[in-house]
Amino acid sequence: MIPLDFITGALLYLLAVGLALSLLVTVIRGARTLRRRRRERVAAPVRGLLLELLCAPEEEQGELLERMARIDRRTWTALEPTVAAMLGKVSGRARTALVRLYEMRGSAAQAVADLGSRSAVRRGRAAQVLGQLRHRPATPSLCRLLDDRDREVRLAAARALGRTGDPAAVPHLLRSLHGPRAVSPKIVTAALTSLGADAWHRLAAGLQDPAPLVRAVAVEVLGVTGAIARTPDIVRALREDPETEVRIRAARALGRLGMPDGLEPLLAAIRPGQPAAPRIVAAGALGSLGAEAATGPLAALLGDPDPHVAGTVARALLRLGPPGEAALRGAVRDRPDTRAAAQARAVLAEAAVGGTRHDVLVEVSL
Amino acid sequence: MARVLVADDDADIRDLVAFKLTQSGHQVTAVEDGMAALRALREGPPDLVLLDIRMPGMSGLDVCRELRAAQETASLPVILITARSQEGDVELGFSAGADDYIVKPFSPRELSSRVNAVLSRAER
């Protein structure tokens, strides 16, 4: 039996630890609030000047910029987080004025220097500022930060590279997907997507990478950014890539691109005898493609033994419009007691009540 | 001069919108959430309401629906503010009865033009 003294002691100890932690949290929160209030108090006299700059007509911006460039260092340090936040909230002339302000104060150069700081907070903050400024000359330094020892800094660098818009960052972003200091695929995908068409050439090169995750992300981004010029590369990935996940994403990309060149490889991908996941995505992509020629091959799979394949095929037929609908009705009429007819009936009923699901989701992780 | 009510939980946006519209000659009341917006509306109906779609507690969409449901505010012009990543919300905003929308990041000049355009339409 456990002695009562021991239980009492343990409870008192836990209580003391709980109280100490609560006190610590309160002190930290209090200190943060005080610091924020002090910063707001210091920045308050020039906050109006910042708003005036953002709202000023072009001919008045010069003088306001001069005034803001002369703000003392302490006040600027207090105001700068607001200026950095505003960079992401305003566009047009107001944004240009903020970028000019950073240049005039030498803050962009300071941020570049801070990328090499020993403090992870400063490195991350500098990356964030350079991204907001879309400061392309910082690309090489930001690329180096993708291998930073601090996870948050790596994420900030990836986001910043997406904003700078420099396609030279593509191979570095792709490389950051693997290794002990890998960056989250979601962040890398978002950054690569932001780079748009300028990134296509280098993304297509990424389809040859030995790492499946790199190829999967590359093909996904090509689809999302509408890289129709890269359709042959995506078709090759669908046909030849040894990794199922890459083929799945290639099929989805072809559906998104909607190019006729995608039809034949997608039809090949839905044939029986292959893994179900790529077949399902390819069937969904054929529905997105909207090619009438897909009607026959899709209708032939309405009775597929895999219910997910058959269900997706039925919905894809519906998305093809009148020819697909005719095929569904044909299955109900001509093969009334078969699995194909049941699938067709279910989808037609769904459509009749306006509840047809169009999205095909197949989650496979590498 | 028109009376404009602005509701946004982001202090930077709230101050910027209030500053620009005041500069354009409007009388602005700025609040930080949907509930405060409804309270301000009860105290005195404005000529136009600018609502951030995503606010903690009561969203801009909820406020918009409440406005449309009440007879006295049913035709009050409403402009929604949304982030680029939430553009899907715009459709919901129009369903809720909004007259226009502004996407963040926005230019203060564009904001002023949109407000004036919606006010002109409402006057006609």
Structure, described:
- Chain B: InterPro entries: CheY-like_superfamily, Sig_transdc_resp-reg_receiver, WalR-like.
- Chain B: It holds the Pfam family Response_reg.
- Chain B: Keywords: DNA-binding, Phosphoprotein, Transcription, Transcription regulation, Two-component regulatory system.
- Chain B: This is Response regulator.
- The complex is a heterodimer of chains A (366) and B (124).
- Chain A has 20 helices and no strands.
- With 366 residues, chain A is mainly α.
- Chain B has 124 residues and is of the alpha/beta class.
- Helices cover 46% and strands 21% of the residues of chain B.
- In chain B, strands 2-1-3-4-5 form a 5-stranded parallel β-sheet, sandwiched between helices.
- The longest helix of chain B has 16 residues.
- The mean pLDDT of chain B is 91.
In short:
Chain B: Residues 3-119 form the Response regulatory domain. Chain A has 366 residues and is mainly α. Chain A has helices at residues 4-55, 58-69, 73-87, 92-105, 107-114, 120-132, 139-145, 151-164, 170-175, 185-195, 200-206, 212-224, 231-240, 244-257, 263-269, 276-289, 295-300, 307-319, 322-334, 339-352.
Coarse morphology of chain B: globular
**Strand ordering within the main sheet of chain B:** 2-1-3-4-5
Low-confidence stretches of chain B: none
**Which fold name fills CATH's third level, the topology of the domain at 231-366 in chain A?**
Leucine-rich Repeat Variant
- Please identify the structural class of chain B as seen in this structure: alpha/beta
Q: Report, as a whole number of angstroms, the end-to-end distance of chain A.
A: 51 Å
CATH fold assignment of chain B = Rossmann fold
The fraction of residues assigned to DSSP E strands of chain B is 15-25%
Give the radius of gyration of chain A: 28 Å
Number of helices of chain A: 20
CATH architecture of the domain at 231-366 in chain A: Alpha Horseshoe
Helix content of chain B: 40-55%
Distance between the termini of chain B: 16 Å
Organism (chain B): Streptomyces ossamyceticus
Protein name (chain B): Response regulator
Keywords (chain B): DNA-binding, Phosphoprotein, Transcription, Transcription regulation, Two-component regulatory system
Domain Response regulatory (chain B): 3-119
